[in-house]
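pls design
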């Protein structure tokens, strides 16, 4: 045998087995991803007519063999959010399904090809949209119209009580909801400056710019006037966004919250929230709702505003890998389970305390 043949065969053999091993590992990882993204519920696309437009929605139904289910209607926070929140809602929908509840959500106007523009909406517009979705759900034979409630996060804090004032809801899950637009904006601004370690001079300059923006809003300034006043330093502001803020900057949920009196409310508050002053939120929710005895406030020390674990959200790589291989682990400890138990307890006629 030629002396070079045996080493060559050895190298080919090593390369072949390395390839087989790599393919096996890849197949194994793919199987894990598929398994982790298989949720215990049936999912279907639905269309909801509202105001001459169509809401492109997703309805998930528990796989428990029952003909009718209660329903959790999802109200998004700020931003161009699609029906599944890029699949981020699915672990929550699964928790709802385990409690015997269906879930309903839809693309915001202008998102994923949906008609309209979500930046054209006021909080009242969003409440009307949600009310229409509830009416659509009540007409379905597979939904129990007496067990329809709301889930909403952040900006949805201004929408949830408006919906409850328009149509009966049997419960509310409020996730770090905002109370007052201007107070929330200032809290977020200062929290981000502190997180960035901003100097005193930079902090003063940013606050001055914020105060100038408020004055422009109060006198109903146009976007062109805003651009001129900011001398081109728009910090991402667009004409659509300016119009949206102009419509909604006076939002305050305090008085509207009275519509939730007597309704079981789970108030979920994040321990690392730089967007919403959760202490202010809890204080006002307790002041308005505690008299009815139906409020349960729950704090999650390791949660950020998005209710991801802070240790994960701090790293884009950790977020990506966790979302791929263990999406349920993204959320703060206890958050999904508390939501499931809250819904389950409603069916038992309990106080719905997690």
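designed seq:
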């Amino acid at each position: 045998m030629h002396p070079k043949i045996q080493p060559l065969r050895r190298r080919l053999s090593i390369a072949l087995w390395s390839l087989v091993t790599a393919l096996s590992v890849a197949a194994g990882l793919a199987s894990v991803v598929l398994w982790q993204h298989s949720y215990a519920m049936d999912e279907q696309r639905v269309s909801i007519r509202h105001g001459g437009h169509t809401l492109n929605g997703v309805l998930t139904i528990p796989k428990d063999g029952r003909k009718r289910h209660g329903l959790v209607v999802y109200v998004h926070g700020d931003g161009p959010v699609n029906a599944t929140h890029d699949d981020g809602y699915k672990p929550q929908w699964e928790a709802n399904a385990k409690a015997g509840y269906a879930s309903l959500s839809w693309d915001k106007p202008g998102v994923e090809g949906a008609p309209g523009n979500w930046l054209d909406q006021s909080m009242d517009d969003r409440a009307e949209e949600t009310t229409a979705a509830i009416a659509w759900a009540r007409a379905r034979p597979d939904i129990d119209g007496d067990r329809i409630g709301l889930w909403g996060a952040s900006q949805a804090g201004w929408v949830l009580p408006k919906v409850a004032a328009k149509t009966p809801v049997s419960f509310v899950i409020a996730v770090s909801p905002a109370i007052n637009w201007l107070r929330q904006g200032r809290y977020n601004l200062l929290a981000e400056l502190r997180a960035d370690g901003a100097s005193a001079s930079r902090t003063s300059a940013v606050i001055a710019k914020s105060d100038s923006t408020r004055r422009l809003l109060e006198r109903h300034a146009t976007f062109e006037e805003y651009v001129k006043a900011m001398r081109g330093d728009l910090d991402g502001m667009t004409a659509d966004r300016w119009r949206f803020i102009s419509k909604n900057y006076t939002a305050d949920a305090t008085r509207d919250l009275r519509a939730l009196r007597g309704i079981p409310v789970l108030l979920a508050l994040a321990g690392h929230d730089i967007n919403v002053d959760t202490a202010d939120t809890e204080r006002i929710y307790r002041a308005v709702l505690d008299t009815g005895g139906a409020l349960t406030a729950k704090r999650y020390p390791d949660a950020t505003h998005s209710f991801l674990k802070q240790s994960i959200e701090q790293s884009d790589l950790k977020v990506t890998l966790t979302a791929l291989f263990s999406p349920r682990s993204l959320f703060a400890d206890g958050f999904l389970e508390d939501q499931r138990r809250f819904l389950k307890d409603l069916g038992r006629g309990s106080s719905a305390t997690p």
